């Protein structure tokens, strides 16, 4: 009887501890997401992670070019190109594109090459809140932050955060840095063709370049250009 009572006491303590941990986690996440609804991030977790890797492990490091631009100061061509390339149902889903996930799973079962199903919201969560590691914990973190971002931010803010924090190559963070590095222009001055090229390299920005596009990147650019007129303007 005494052992049974002890087990119940331990179980109750574990349960209370888990509840407290969950409440603290929710509170911290809410604080971060609410603050970034109104404040533009001066840096991202990934920027800090790359700097720490350099300090601790002597990993290669390039000081990131990072200049914030309001959504109204970013070319409408780039907004449409990114939505066309990365998340065509951006305005209709709530952070998770289950239709796309179903397609990806079906293709995987058919033995086709794997591809991602991350939405713009999930990618923004990854860029701002998570280090650039490839593991299950990061995926869980993306999903966790996506829930809160979709709840608290509107789609315009999500797209604005994404375009300013997405990785566009080594040391290139966001649309302004990418536009300047690749085309010697501003985020507002990108043409349709330039915007489509920048969107085309997003799946692998350290492998592909908008200024030296491979035949595959050019094909992606043409496909994006064809989709762009049907994409929403935010």
TrEMBL record:
<comment type="pathway">
    <text>Cell wall biogenesis; peptidoglycan biosynthesis.</text>
</comment>
<keyword id="KW-0997">Cell inner membrane</keyword>
<dbReference type="Pfam" id="PF00912">
    <property type="entry name" value="Transgly"/>
</dbReference>
<dbReference type="GO" id="GO:0008360">
    <property type="term" value="P:regulation of cell shape"/>
</dbReference>
<keyword id="KW-1003">Cell membrane</keyword>
<dbReference type="GO" id="GO:0016763">
    <property type="term" value="F:pentosyltransferase activity"/>
</dbReference>
<dbReference type="GO" id="GO:0008955">
    <property type="term" value="F:peptidoglycan glycosyltransferase activity"/>
</dbReference>
<feature type="domain" description="Glycosyl transferase family 51">
    <location>
        <begin position="67"/>
        <end position="228"/>
    </location>
</feature>
<keyword id="KW-1133">Transmembrane helix</keyword>
<feature type="transmembrane region" description="Helical">
    <location>
        <begin position="21"/>
        <end position="39"/>
    </location>
</feature>
<dbReference type="InterPro" id="IPR001264">
    <property type="entry name" value="Glyco_trans_51"/>
</dbReference>
<keyword id="KW-0573">Peptidoglycan synthesis</keyword>
<dbReference type="InterPro" id="IPR011812">
    <property type="entry name" value="Pep_trsgly"/>
</dbReference>
<dbReference type="GO" id="GO:0005886">
    <property type="term" value="C:plasma membrane"/>
</dbReference>
<protein>
    <recommendedName>
        <fullName>Biosynthetic peptidoglycan transglycosylase</fullName>
        <ecNumber>2.4.99.28</ecNumber>
    </recommendedName>
</protein>
<dbReference type="InterPro" id="IPR036950">
    <property type="entry name" value="PBP_transglycosylase"/>
</dbReference>
<keyword id="KW-0961">Cell wall biogenesis/degradation</keyword>
<comment type="similarity">
    <text>Belongs to the glycosyltransferase 51 family.</text>
</comment>
<keyword id="KW-0472">Membrane</keyword>
<keyword id="KW-0328">Glycosyltransferase</keyword>
<dbReference type="GO" id="GO:0009252">
    <property type="term" value="P:peptidoglycan biosynthetic process"/>
</dbReference>
<keyword id="KW-0133">Cell shape</keyword>
<dbReference type="InterPro" id="IPR023346">
    <property type="entry name" value="Lysozyme-like_dom_sf"/>
</dbReference>
<dbReference type="GO" id="GO:0009274">
    <property type="term" value="C:peptidoglycan-based cell wall"/>
</dbReference>
<comment type="function">
    <text>Peptidoglycan polymerase that catalyzes glycan chain elongation from lipid-linked precursors.</text>
</comment>
<keyword id="KW-0812">Transmembrane</keyword>
<keyword id="KW-0808">Transferase</keyword>
<dbReference type="GO" id="GO:0071555">
    <property type="term" value="P:cell wall organization"/>
</dbReference>
